[in-house]
Design a protein that fits this description.
Blueprint: H1 2-19, H2 33-40, E1 45-49, E2 57-66, E3 76-85, E4 92-96, H3 107-112, E5 115-119, H4 139-153, E6 161-166, H5 168-179, E7 186-190, E8 199-200, H6 202-207, H7 213-228, H8 230-244, H9 253-270, H10 285-295, H11 303-308, H12 310-320, E9 322-323, H13 357-369, E10 373-378, E11 396-401, H14 415-429
Parallel strand pairs: 4-5, 4-6, 6-7, 7-10, 8-9, 10-11
Antiparallel strand pairs: 1-2, 2-3, 3-5
Helix pairs in contact: 4-5, 5-13, 7-9, 8-10
């Protein structure tokens, strides 16, 4: 018994001594969210921004993006990305801009109250090099920008990913989905066309059938009225240009006026014009100009906008396709623009060859395999004529707002229609994701 008592005493003393020993633990390294971003993007310039809405942190990332993802030695350009953060476990909304990026909170980010990653399209806005290397302004290169970015950020953001974009940005959503179907759980393109040809005739068919015949006739009469009052309207353009310090050297004001008149029906239906507001026979030159300017925007043809949109027209004329112009209603009144084409606005001295198969392949995918895509359109929007039409076996939801325009958003639908949208998103994303209905 003495032996066992001694053994127990020894063990007790030994445990006590060990429990009192100081153990040196490795220090735990706690990184801030910004430091985590800096680890992911060691070569990027990362700047803190003011967080808005439900976000707790916001950052501007300027990434040294490869010009050519297939040949890193080709060089890089400065690519602007905006990360708005709330919680790494929340859903993350990827915004694929079609053009430049202005930091703001998108509708879907409000619905999920999650994180948002907003990406400026390569070679637009601040992401535009001084001299654009046109060969690298291809959709596949842009899609690789998104894929590489999402792959890295997924090491931080573990929740569900949703991609979204508006118009050309929405088209980019569909292209991205066709190239990397599993990068995001759900895709939500707004008013996104998939255009069949370099100048798709479906937009013209839409213009000739949308709305009432009386309204369409009124549009034609207005087009003719503007050109019949050419001298007075040109004087108003000159006054406006001087006031706004706009210059018309790439296009003369005569050419700008005629293109604006030819563009008018497209823009009228695109932006949901009101037939009752179209000026009639008794309108002054100023009233005629003001209405053209309101619907089309004469600034669209000034030197600054011409320069800013060169990348867009290059993309439309090489891969994306665009629309044409119907001269029939005003052909006898045209003095400068006899063969109108959007090729007029593409960069000069650059090879512009259209690839008809590019968007055809995207359309083939989304219409036959594009599951978990929520499409948002406006009934009157001219671009809606080019909307994809998925087959019945595809798991998708297409919402068309009656009388809606290119500015149609989820918030514009009725309470019942919005609930249909929320239910579908919930079904696709699962009940681990919380949906916060938009305020009416």
């Amino acid at each position: 018994m003495k032996f066992y008592k001694s053994l127990i005493l020894f063990i007790t003393i030994s445990v006590s001594v060990i429990s009192c020993r100081v153990v040196n633990l490795e220090p735990v390294e706690i990184l801030t969210f910004q430091q985590k971003l800096e680890q992911l993007f060691p070569d990027a310039e990362i700047t803190k921004m003011d967080a808005k809405d439900h976000f707790t942190k916001a950052f501007q990332l300027v990434i040294n993006e490869p010009l050519d993802h297939n040949n890193i030695e080709a060089g890089t350009f400065k690519h602007y990305v905006y990360v708005s953060h709330t919680n790494v476990k929340k859903p993350t909304v990827l915004v694929t801009e079609g053009y430049n990026a202005t930091p703001r909170t998108y509708e879907l980010s409000k619905i999920f109250r999650g994180n948002q990653v907003q990406v400026e399209y390569r070679f637009y806005g601040k992401s535009r090099p001084d001299s654009i290397p046109w060969d690298y302004l291809k959709n596949d290169q842009a899609i690789e920008d998104y894929h590489q970015l999402v792959t890295k950020l997924k090491t931080l953001y573990k929740g569900k990913w949703i991609s979204t974009g508006i118009s050309k940005g929405g088209e980019t959503v569909l292209i991205y989905k066709s190239k990397y179907p599993y990068d995001v759980a759900v895709a939500v393109p707004y008013v996104a066309p998939l255009i069949n040809t370099q100048e798709d005739p479906r937009t013209e068919e839409h213009i000739n059938t949308v709305g009432s015949e009386a309204c369409r006739n009124k549009i034609t009469k207005f087009q003719r009225l503007v050109l019949n009052n050419r001298v007075g309207v040109l004087q108003e353009i000159a006054k406006y240009a001087e006031e706004k310090k706009m210059h018309f050297t790439e296009l003369s004001t005569d050419e700008a006026l005629e293109y604006a008149v030819l563009e008018f029906p497209f823009s009228f239906w695109q932006w949901g014009g009101n037939c009752n507001n179209i000026p009639t026979q008794n309108a002054t030159a100023k009233e005629l100009f003001n209405y053209v300017n309101r619907i089309v925007g004469i600034s669209f043809y000034n030197d600054k906008t011409y320069y800013n949109l060169l990348p867009s027209y290059y993309q439309h004329m090489t891969e994306l396709g665009y629309y044409g112009f119907d001269t029939t209603p005003v052909k006898d009144l045209l003095k400068v623009v006899h063969t109108p084409t959007n090729l007029r606005f593409a960069p000069k001295n650059v090879a512009v060859t259209y690839n008809p198969k590019y968007i055809q392949n995207v359309r083939e995918y989304v219409e036959n395999k594009g599951n978990k895509i929520l499409y948002i359109y406006g009934e009157y929007d001219t671009w809606g004529a080019c909307a994809p039409n998925p087959k019945p076996h595809v798991n998708f939801l297409k919402m068309v707002l009656k009388g809606g325009s290119h500015s149609t958003r989820i918030k514009n639908f009725s309470t019942e229609e919005k609930q249909l949208i929320y239910d579908k998103l919930q079904n696709w994303l699962g009940y681990s994701v919380t949906i916060y209905p938009l305020e009416n």
